[in-house]
Amino acid sequence: MSLRLPDGGRLIDRSQTVSFTFNGKQLNGHPGDTLASALMGAGRTILGRSFKYHRPRGLVASGAEEPNALVNLGQGKTHEPNQRATTTELFDGLTATSQNHWPSLEWDIGEVNALIPRFLPAGFYYKTFIHPRAFWKHVFEPFIRQSAGLGKAPDPKQTDPDRYEQFYAHTEVVIAGGGIAGLQAALEAGRAGARVILCEQTGHWGGRAPVDGVEVDGKPAEAWINDAVQELEAMENVHLRLRTMVAGVYDHGYVIAYERVSDHAPASDIPRHRLWRIRTARVIAATGALERPLSFPGNDKPGVMLASAMRDYVVNWGVAPGARTVVVTNNDDAYRTALALLDAGLAVPCIVDARPRAEGALPQQARARGIRVLTATGIAGVKGLRGVVAVQLCAQDGPGTVTEDVVCDAVAMSGGWSPVVHLWSHCGGKLTWDQDGAFFRPDPDRPPTDQHGEGFVACVGAADGALIATSTMENASIKTRKMLSEIGKMVSGSVPAVTAATEAPMRPVWMMPATAGPKKRAKMWLDFQNDVKVSDVQLAAREGFESVEHTKRYTTLGMATDQGKLSNINGLAILAQALDEDIPRVGTTTFRPPYTPISMGAIAGEARGTIFQPLRRTPIQGWHEANGAHFEPVGHWRRPYCFRRKGESHRAAVNREITATRTSLGLLDASTLGKIVVKGPDAGRFLDMLYTGMMSSLKPGRCRYGLMCNENGFLMDDGVVARLDDDSFLVHTTTGGADRIHAHMEDWLQTEWWDWQVYTANITEAFAQIAVVGPKARAVLDKLGSDLDLSNAALPFMSWAEGKIGGFDARVFRISFSGELSFEVAVPASQGRAFWDALLAAGAEFDATPYGTEALHVMRAEKGFIMIGDETDGTVIPQDLGLDWAISKKKPDYLGKRAQERPHMTSPDRWKLVGLETLDGSVLPDGSYAVAPGTNANGQRNTQGRVTSTYFSPTMGRGIAMGLVLHGPDRMGEVLEFNTTKASPKGETPKTVMARIVSPVFHDPEGEKQNV
Amino acid sequence: MLTFRCPCCGIDACETELAPGGEAHLKRFGPGSSDDEFEGYLFLRPNVRGVHFERWRHAMGCGKWFLAARCTATLEVFGTYPAQVSAPPPDILAAIRAKRPDWSLT
């Protein structure tokens, strides 16, 4: 039974009480508590259930490495699963619930899994649920889903009410970790004048040193830490951040840090999390080390804990997991825990040391204080179902014959320490095996390198393997000074003297007892969160998974949310033993960012809702919004699809718009159309290379339709080019293509034809452009009044002129995408809305009807005009679309010409554009295929064509379509069978639709209407 | 995330400001070239492990294309230079040889 001690706890304020709830029950803690320490203080031992066997689990660690104590935090909109109790700072009103149990934390039905663990070894799911196939969906999966899974996903219908933000920072040194090594590194760098950002993931400075009784310069570590922080805070070039974890180190000195701004004090009007995006010259990882568990039978029971974590709980928060603790270790450091427990008035019946001898300073102290020290001893088992009742002792070098039972209610274990080398490894730093310490540490000869080819990350202190406090500080100073000299910063001065007990060497112990049989090995946990045991890794090795990466995936070792912080080395050692290999030869798995999980909110930052993506607005957008426009996205624009009147369907609105345009007058906001000016003595020559047609021969005042292909021959854009004067052209592109085409032009001009004198400018947004379309188009412009002669004789089809219309500065283009008489009028963007209003007022007598993109699409399809993105998909060449007339035969070269000469491009068997008319007048499904006799190699129906555009045409009163069909133009009148996706009753083949091949020009084939 | 110094505006630009453009110093083959020449120009890339010349555009900055010499294995950047050249300039070659004595331009 865990408890709050009568006194002690350097981080808590006992004078105040903070209340919170766990599984609905109200509990109390103190300011400074973590959720973990508060729960321990409230007597809560079982905090969760394990993933696979649903075994009851309690705290193992005190920090970011905690595998068991994951909880749901918050409720409703703020609910968040899988939060570590150990890194959650307590606040008044915190609500937490435990996870992964059903029906309750104390009584879980899945616990039967634990009684029959031989049914769930590594690879169990792969092997068991594969047959019979049909059982998966209806039998296995529902049961597994009910009992599996970590935490509950937030309600997708709820929106996260919290705010998140991102900061960009540029600095010279980022230091991760605010223990004594990190603080010393920051002092060195700060005194040398370097710009420094120092991040500490917890809410307090100093790391472990105060807990471990370290002295600096003859004073307790805490005093030195306070002085160091004060000095750093006074430095303008040093920036200190608490609650900020350096999550990842990336190429060229890019660092991501994750700041939990207000998790510890919610409801304040500041962001919850902040993601720091930092560019730095150097990274110092003062990330410390993590203690490793020992693999003895029953090491996962609630009350069995890392020795250092138990010391943290006692010293930092004045709580303990039990009153009688057995310490089990293979090193001297764990003796500190025994001494700390004695200091707190708790009992330590014995220290179980796997080493044959324990004569170091700390073991001597322990003996002197009356603790029984048993060497060459191990633990053969832990008694107790939902907690610890006693441990069974045995000889370490044996099969585990029990020699003695020791009554206790907690176990502190220590299997040695592993430096936290994650940040070193994220960007390619290599590791080397340290034989003495039995851990991987950074290989100084193979650091991660930056854009200059220089190592830019250094691990210092315990993260570099300097585990003993006396060497930690010195290591931090030396390494930091070396790094500073690389970026031209010099520092000198003495290094603080550190006093701490000396430690005798540890002895690697990967299995306890050393020659345990299969029964015991199946109870030795390596990965607590994913329930991976020594027996699972050994099974994987037997089944041929020799690579650590394969073993990891087969057993799920280290794949839980803690990413193997506790289990990696132990698992690796067991695998190496099973393979009879050296650990460094088996290798280590790859550390990937983030170090611990970060919130999706922080990754998104402010980019959500309406500012997720910037929207582009035409000068006339406001009118559209106020007049029933139904918008569709086109690139970053929102264009009106149609303008609905009250009670009108989309379809009815589109039909009305088309009929009005074809019979009287329609208005289209075409401002989104790309407009690029191409100017210079070589502009004509350049456009001749860009377009398939000839542009240099175009006369000023005239327009020409052009096709643009990429170098691979495929159509990429189309549009009308107007020649403004001798050396300038105005290129119209598709709405979505303006930026892309402008970039395409610049690519060729800057990197291939850089000696050509051509300049381009994307002026898309400088003009509002309105298409005035229909038989009354000229009448409405005449009514507005113009200094231009707009007659067909003076301004014929495919010409343009500049002048005044209704007092507006205008360029008028006689171009038509609808087949009607059409003037596209461009006015300066600032006058766009006024011009639109003037047209509407003047056009009232002609029933002037604004139309949207769908009417535009239908009208162009009625005329057989292609649309980039409908008729083209990146595999279509102009010749496929019957556009040979727009390809110059005279030009020696254009982009795509050589590609179009390849045999498969000139093959007569390419599918070609035709019109399609259903026999029953219905609308063909978009994208449907024309089926052909026989089947292909995959047993699918052969095809001979597909639909590229399909609409209901109010003008024709029936469905019309365009499509690409094998030998299409030669098969006029032939009827094809098109598939549909319409659901059909069981057993029947889906319905097909019959359609006749016709000319793609359905309306006004002679072009009489546009040419008046 | 890579950084390159844009030789046009002098800024150390982050990858998010840049658009990649593949291998540099390609010789264009148009009409009249053989199938092999055209295939080589359009499709065949050595995809080297090591020193690589490549095209980048400072798309979210000055808009200019530039070329970079970079090690594809270590991501070391030997230098950047304006795009208006058909072969790497001598100072870039010298910078590469200083770091990679065994390397040669093939």
> How would you sum up the global shape of chain B?
globular
Which structural class fits the helix and strand makeup of chain B?
A: alpha+beta
Instruction: Give the CATH class of the largest domain in chain A.
Output: Alpha Beta
Distance between the termini of chain A: 96 Å
Q: Uncertain runs of chain A with pLDDT below 50, 5 residues or more?
A: none
- Based on CA atoms alone, the radius of gyration of chain B comes out at 15 Å
Biggest sheet statistics of chain A: 7 strands, mixed
- Helix tally of chain A? 26
Radius of gyration of chain A: 38 Å
Secondary structure: number of strands of chain A: 52
CATH topology of the largest domain in chain A: Gyrase A, domain 2
Tell me the domain tally of chain B.
Answer: 1
> Based on the structure, what is the oligomeric state of the protein chains?
heterodimer
The largest beta-sheet of chain B arranges its strands as: 3-4-5-6
Largest sheet of chain B: 4 strands, antiparallel
Name given to the CATH homologous superfamily of the largest domain in chain A: Probable tRNA modification gtpase trme, domain 1
Percentage of residues in helical conformation of chain A: 10-25%
Structural class of chain A: alpha+beta
Instruction: Quickly count the helices of chain B.
Output: 2
**Overall shape of chain A:** elongated
